[in-house]
Design goal:
Elements lengths: L4 H13 L29 E4 L5 E4 L6 E4 H9 L6 E5 L22 E4 L7 H6 L4 E6 L13 H7 L1 E6 L5 H14 L7 H23 L3 E7 L3 E5 L5 H8 L3 E2 L11 E5 L10 E5 L7 H4 L3 H4 L2 H4 L3 E4 L7 H17 L5
Parallel strand pairs: 3-4, 3-6, 4-5, 6-7, 8-10, 8-12, 12-13
Antiparallel strand pairs: 1-2, 8-9, 9-11
Helix pairs in contact: 6-11
């Protein structure tokens, strides 16, 4: 991550645990240049890719032993990159042994799990895989998501790294960058699996735009913890930024934390932003409706009373296949919602 371990943990805590303050300044919007992809022979020729740190990573062969953040591996899998990924780090398996939602469709029993949570990155296990490339997301300039600060220097010496920006730009732009990266690694973006997923994504986006126009309800993306209720900012979060661009009336908090991701509200002030629909962080590490039912402040929210709460994957999978179902779920929630706030 960044040069400050505490900053890294703060960002992770807000997204993954719903229980910390926001991070500091984040990366400015950035995209790939014309040289971002590989022009080499994917069967063994030279390979290069310019990532969102504006760093050109070059190898004398197309990477065949990739270790990636779990969500990153899942996105690449959706574009057709499978066997090249030999290891993952990040939320991969739940306590019951089933795949974590962030793992998408990857075979979690095939890949080596370097660490299942933050700060569990096993350097020796990583080195034993003889990796030639590490790929992960990036929420801050130069930061490698879920790479612990205390072992970062050891990790980055073992293989080249590619980081793809994951904030301050709309969801669709990040997906396009992952498509470019996957293509450089040998994926066929014209494969039926990929084109079908893209068509579904585009249809879902059109349907969301239509729903938002015909039923302009107010939507708040939020996350709950034991002590705080987080109101999320569509100015930074890539998915809700994209939904807002499609016409969804996403509420913009006016007193954001230092990082700009959330406004941290006490439960006594959870009703500050009246909303018709709540998009609630649905990951296992955040409090869910059954957990929040004991909180009177939660039960008093108009959207909760009306049963107009839908799940929100606050750290989406950056692929057409990963994002389309999320858009469809939001569309359904908006179509069925009534104005209650």
């Amino acid at each position: 991550m960044s040069t400050s371990r505490s900053v890294s943990l703060t960002r992770r805590g807000v997204l993954a645990a719903g229980g910390a303050v926001g991070i500091g300044a984040l990366l400015a919007a950035c995209g790939g240049g014309k040289d971002s992809g590989s022009k080499g022979d994917v069967k063994g020729g030279a390979w290069s890719f310019t990532d969102d740190r504006k760093k050109k990573v070059s190898l004398d062969h197309t990477p065949q032993r990739i270790v990636a953040f779990t969500g990153t591996a899942a996105a690449l899998y959706d574009f057709g990159i499978d066997k090249q990924v030999v290891g993952v780090f990040g939320p991969t398996k739940l306590k019951n042994g089933k795949p974590d939602p962030q793992a998408g469709d990857i075979d979690v029993d095939r890949v080596t799990i370097i660490g299942n949570a933050y700060n569990q990155f096993a350097v020796e296990k990583y080195a034993a895989l003889n990796p030639d490339l590490l790929i992960t997301n990036m929420y801050e300039p130069g930061a490698l998501w879920f790479v612990p600060e205390q072992s970062k220097d050891k990790i980055t010496k073992l293989a080249e790294q590619v980081a793809i920006t994951s904030a301050r730009v709309p969801l669709v732009k990040i997906i396009e960058r992952y498509a470019e990266l996957a293509q450089s690694l040998g994926a066929d973006l014209k494969a039926k699996k990929v084109t079908d997923a893209k068509a579904r994504f585009e249809k879902a986006a059109a349907e969301l735009r239509k729903a938002a126009k015909s039923n302009p309800v107010r939507v708040l993306a939020c996350s709950g913890s034991a002590d705080l209720f987080y109101a999320s900012n569509p100015g930074i979060n890539s998915d809700i930024m994209y939904y807002k661009s499609l016409g969804v009336d996403i509420i913009v908090p006016d007193n954001l934390d230092k990082g700009g991701y959330f406004e941290n509200l006490s439960w006594e002030n959870a009703d500050k932003y009246p909303a018709d629909v709540l998009m609630l962080d649905n990951r296992t590490s955040a409090l869910q409706p059954k957990d929040l039912a004991a909180k009177p402040a939660w039960n008093k929210l108009p959207a909760v009373k009306a049963g107009q709460v839908t799940g929100w994957s606050s750290e989406p999978r950056f692929s057409y296949a990963g994002a389309a179902p999320l858009i469809e779920e939001l569309t359904k929630a908006i179509q069925n919602a009534k104005k209650v706030a």
